[in-house]
Amino acid sequence: MSETKHIAIDFGASSGRVILGTFDGHKVQLEEVYRFANTPVEMNGVLYWDFPKLFQEIKNGLKAVSRITTEVESLAIDTWGVDFGYIDRNGHLLLLPKNYRNETKLKYQEAIYNRLSEFEFYKETGVLPSSINSYVQLYADLQEHPWLKDIVAHVLFMPDLFNYFLTQQTNVNYAIASTSGLLSTEQTWSTKVLDTLGIPQQWFQQSDMTLHTILGPLTPTLVKETGLKDLQVIASAGHDTAASILTVASDAIFISCGTWSVIGIQLESPIISEAAYEHRITNEGTSEGYIKCLKNLNALWVLQELQRYWSEQGHQHSYNEIVKSAVTCKIDSYIDVEDSIFLKHENMHELIRQHLIATGQRIPDHVGEWTRVVIQSIALNYQRTISAIEKLSGRHYDKVHMVGGGIQNRLLCQLTADFTNKEVITGPIEASAMGNILSQLLTLKHIDKSAVQQVIDTSVELTSYLPNE
C-alpha cells in the first residue's frame, strides 16, 4: 500500500504535542511537529484548564502539519483522564473545564459518601474512589450551579470535548469514560451512581458511547484555517494510558513508566473484591473494550524531586549522570514510595533521610547511593504490586512490558527484572503517541488487531532485560 499520514494529538497534564505519523504498510514513523505547554489556571481559588488556549494550540499544530503536507488521512486525540466540559443546547461551552487537582470540590466528599459508601462505589463501578473522580466534580458543580440541570445538553470528557469543537459531532469514547467512576461494571452508565448523586442521566445518554469511530471531517472554518480538507477525525484510544497499552501484548504485565507509574494487566472483566480494594486496584477500559486492571504508583517523582534539591544546593547533576552514578552502588536501604509523605513538593532529601532514620536503615553517603536507594525502592514496589495483581487475578505472567519515558532509566529496568524475576521488555518511549496512531490504523482498517504486534516490532526498537542470577 502507499504511504498514509495520520496526526496524533497527545496531551499530558503539563504539555501537549502534535505528532505526524507515517505508515508505509509495515512500519510507523513518528515526527513531533509542534509542542506546547498545558498549564492550569487558578482563578478565585478554582483551578481550571485553559481550554480556549489549548484548542488554539491544536489549531496551531494543525497549521504546522499543513506546512509539511496537507495529505493527511486522519487525526485522533488522547488526553489525561476524568476531566470534562459542559455543552449547552446551542453547542456552546459552559464554564471552563476544572482541573482534577481543583480543591474546591473536596468539601463535598463527605456528603457523597454518606449517600453511597466508598466500597459501594467500588463494587458498582470497579473504579477506586478518589477525589479526582469525575463524579466528585460533577456533584460539586451541581451544588454550586444548580442551573446546570436546566441548560446542559452534553457532558463530554476532554478528548471528546476537543473532538466536538473540531467536528461539531458529539461522541463519548469508552476508554476515557471508564476513568470517570460513572460507568457500571457492565460498561454502561451507572444509573445507581447518577441517581444517587442527582446527576441527570440525559447529560450522558444523548451521546453514543463507542470504542472507535470516524466522526467526520473538520468543520468548514477549520478546513479553511488549516488546509486539511481530506482529514477525518477519529475517536478511539481517548485516554493516554489506553493508547499506551495498545503497544503492549495482552499476555504481559504492563508498566507505563514516568513521574507516576501505571502497572497492571489486561482482562476481559474487572477484579473487584475487598482484597483488591485494600490493594488500591482500579479497573479502567481499554481501546478495544476490555479491562485494564491497574494500580497507580508514585515513582520517578521522588528522584526528580531529589534532583531538584541538589540543583537548589548548587550541585548540577544531569538525570543521566545520577542514574549512571548509582549503577555500581551497593546499599541495603529502602523507602516506601507509596507513603504519602513522598508525594510532597518539599525537601525530598530530608524526607528520605528522616524515613531511613525512623526505620533504622543506613543513610546514603553520596549522590550515587541516594539515587540507588530511590530506584531500587521503586523496583521493589513494582515487584510487590505485580505479586498482588497476580494473586488477585489468579494468573502468572512471565514478562513485564515497560513503556514511556521512564524506560530510559536502564537501571530501573534491570532492577525490575531482578526483583520480579521476570523478563522485562521495554519500548516504545513514545507509547501513547504510537498507540494513538495504531488506534487510527485499526479504525480505518489499514491493519487488523493481529498485525499490531508486527507493526510495533518493525517500528520500535525493543530491549530485553533478563534477571541477574
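^ that was protein a. below is b, sequence first then the C-alpha cells
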Amino acid sequence: MSRIIVKNLPKNIKEERLRKLFSEKGVITNCNLKYTPDGVFRKFAFIGYQTDSAANNAIKFFNNTYIDTNKIVVESCQKLGEKYKARPWSKYSKGSSAYKRLHPDEVDHTEEKAKSFEKKAKIEKINVVGELDKDEKFKEFVSLHQNLSVKPSWQDDGVTVNNDGKDIAFESDDDSDEESGHKEKKEKSEDEPEKEVEEDNEKQLTTEERERDKVNRVLQTSRLFVRNLYYDCQEDHLKDLFSVYGEVNEVHMPVDFKTEKSLGFAFISFTSAENAVKAMTELDGCDFQGRLLHILPAEKKRDDDGVPENLTYKAKKLLEKKQNAGSVHNWNALFVSPSAVADVMAHKYNVDKMDVLEDTGKDSLAVRMALGETEIVAETKDFLIKNGVKIDIFGKPETKRSERVLIVKNLSSGTRRKDIENMFEKYGDIERVVIPPYGLTALVMFRLPIACRNAFRAIAYKKVKDSPIYLERAPFGVFDEDIKPVVETEDKPKKRKKNKKHKEEEAESEKVDSNSKTEEKVTAPDQNKEEKEKKSINKKNVEHVTGKIIVKNVPFEATQKEVRELFSTFGELKYVRLPKKVSGGHRGFAFIEYISKEHSKVNKF
C-alpha cells in the first residue's frame, strides 16, 4: 500500500508544511487534509507516495513522533471496500455512536428495527411449555382451547392457543374491538421490517444494474477510462499495471505539452474484452502511485465508427489507409520508389532523368534501375550503421514496436533535415533525426509517445511534392546508445564535375598502367612460378567453395537474360535457371550459382 494516514495532527498545520515534512522519505503524489463541511479540521490527513517502499519507510520513521506538541500516529491505509474495518470513533463519522447522539434525525433506524425484529422472532420460538408438550392430558386441554379462527363454533371462547402448543395467550370477552385493533397494529409493525428489507433489495438491484451496465459497455468497446492519475505518471507504468490482466493494445495518456506532464487520466485499450472487464473489476478503487484509481467504461474511438458514405471513392480509400496505418505491419524499412531512384541516379551522374529511363536496347531498363536501387540501399545501410541504427532488427517480423520512433519513407530525393524537422516538430519535441544520403528515408525520435502517435495520425499518407509519405513504427531498441551519431555536414548528394574528375581519373589510370608495365619487366621467373602455383590452388578451392542462392519474387515478365545481367555485376556466374510452368512462363523464382562463394553473398542486398 502506497497510501498512509496521519492522525492527531495539530489544528493549525498546513498542507505545504506536511508535504515538506513527509517528502523526506519519498516522492509525494497526494496530500489530502480532511475537513468537515463547516471547515473544521479533523486532525488527520492522507498522504500518497509514488512507491510502496517509500510509504513503509515513512511509517517506520514518523510513527509515534511529535509535530509541535502533538504525538502523531502514522498507519497504512486500508483498501477501499474492505470488509473488516475498524469501528469509527470520531463524532464526524456517521457510523460512530457519538455522531448518532449528536444527529438523531439523520440516523437510519432500519438496522435497529431489523435487529429488534430478529430478537422478537427468537423469543417467539422459545418453548414455554417444556415437558408438558409430551403429556396427553395437556394435548387434550390444548385442543379444547384452540384459536377462534380454527376451533369449531360450539366450543367455548376465552382462551387462544396456537396449534404447536408452545405459546399461550389469555383473552377476555370484554374490549374485543380494542384487542382486534391492537392485533392489526401488531401485524403492521411486524410487516414494516419486511418492507424496509424490500427497499434495501431494490437499492441493491439498482447498484447491480449499474455494474451490469458498466460491464456490458466494456464488453462492447474493450476500452477503459482511468482517472485520478499522478501527473508524473508514464504510459509504460500503466502498461505494466494493466498488462497483468491481458494483452494491452494501446495506452493513450493526454499530456500538457508545455509542462510535458500527464493531465491525470488515460485510456486503456485491450485486445480482449474479457480482460478489460477483469482489469476494471479488480483495479477500480485500488491504490497506484499513492492515488486511488477510478476506472470507468470508455467510449469507442472516432476512427472505429467506419468510413462515411458521403465521401468520394478516392477520399474513402485514403481514409481507410489512414485508419489501417496504425496496425503493426512489416513493410520494407528501406523502401525506395522507382521515381526517386531515377532522380538520384540522374543527380549523381549529372545526366537527365529521361536518359536514365530511356530504353536504348543495349541494356535492360529494369536491370539498370535494380542496380541503382541496390547502390542506394547499400549506402543507406552503411550510413545507418555508422549512426547507431541496428539494421538486423528490421528483418524480424515479431519484434516489439517503439512508441517514440517513426520510419519515414517514400520521401522525394534531396529532402533535408530541416524539412523533416519542420514537418514533425509541430506535434511535439523531437530528440533525434537520422536522414541518410539522398534524403529518401528518415528516422524520427520523439520525446513523448503521444506526440509520436499524433504525428503518425496526421502525416500518414499525406502528399508532399506529389508523393504520399509512408510511416511505420520502428522496432523497439532500434538505436544503439553506445554508438554516437555522425554529424551530418551535407544533406544533398554531391554533384560530379565531369571535366576535372574525368581528367584526373584518366591520369591516374595511365600511371597505374605504366607502373604495371614496369613491374612486369622487372619480375623474375621465380615470381611467375609462385603466381601459377597460387592460381592452381585457388582453382582447386573454387570447386569446393561454390555458392548457390535462390531468388524469390522474380517478376513473371523478367527473362533469364535480364536476371543474368543483373546478378553478373557482383561476380562471375556459373549458371542461371528459371523453373518453368507446364503452361509456359517461369514460376517466379530463380536458382543462381556463382563460381566463388564470396560473390554469392550478394543476397544481403
